[in-house]
Amino acid sequence: MNLSTLISNERIDPKCFRKIQDNKALVIGAGPSIEESTVQNYILEIYNCKKSKSNNAVSEDIVVIAADGATELCLDLGIIPDFVVTDLDGDYESLVRAHSGGSIMVIHAHGDNIDKITSQVPSFSNVIGTTQNFPLKNVYNFGGFTDGDRSVFLADGFLAREIVLVGMDFDSKIGFFSKRKVPNLELKKQKLQIGKYLVGMLLENSRALVTHITTSNHDSSFYGVNKYEVL
Asked: Which pTM value belongs to this model?
């Protein structure tokens, strides 16, 4: 309820998600693989295709969706995500910088982040509110559980033609960009396994072409993935 009251009707229209439809969605999670130069170079290669549309070139539109802590990495690479999916656990300064650069903040409310919702949401204007429960005014339920799998649900739910998963290392250690401090490591791992299960369940029935970018050190396999690329 708190998030619903903080977001006015004038904030932003969910129709903004239409830019995802029939385009390629680059969904960047905060897993440890995004710390590796090979993965960062891959992200830049995809992103530069978005920026380098020339007069005669036929180039697809690429939508970048960053899951919370991955926003910091995107900014380090000079990338402003189109959407940032966050429950405000990531680096706050990075979230502010992304928002200032034009990112739409998809902010999730749950029982453990009420204080952050109250203190941080007023700093943002381009906000879409989400919940895992029954949706309220200005707050929607697009599916998903963790920031990473909610990002995938967003891409699939708004009919991305192709979804490229990067940094979705649900079976690995907790990465630098995910959380600086993890109070309960076992609980965090359990949440990641729920996220992995939900991604697999979703993608089994997805119409999108799904590519999972991974490394030999951080391999997590999903059901419903059309193509794996090990960097």
From this structure: 0.92
Q: What gap in Å lies between CA 150 and CA 155, rounded to an integer? A: 9
Q: Are 139 and 129 in contact (CB under 8 A)?
A: yes
User: Roughly how many angstroms between the first and final C-alpha of the chain, as a whole number?
Assistant: 43
pLDDT tens sequence for the chain (231 residues): 578 787 765 567 788 999 999 999 999 999 999 999 999 999 999 998 876 654 444 456 899 999 999 999 999 999 999 999 999 988 999 999 999 999 999 999 887 888 988 999 988 989 999 988 888 778 899 999 999 999 999 999 999 999 999 999 988 888 888 876 777 889 888 999 999 999 999 999 999 999 999 887 887 777 778 888 888
Calpha distance 128→106 (Å, rounded): 5
Residues 6+ apart with CB under 8 A from 28: 34, 43, 64, 65, 66, 67, 70, 73, 74, 81, 151, 166, 167
Nearest C-alpha neighbor of 152 from the set 212, 88, 105: 212
Please choose, from the candidates 43, 52, 50, 101, the residue with its C-alpha nearest in 3D space to the C-alpha of residue 73.
43
- State which amino acid sits at residue 217: N
Tokens 């204080």, residue located: 115
Q: 106 φ, ψ to 5°?
A: -100, 95
Handedness of CA 205, 66, 14, 192 (dihedral sign): positive
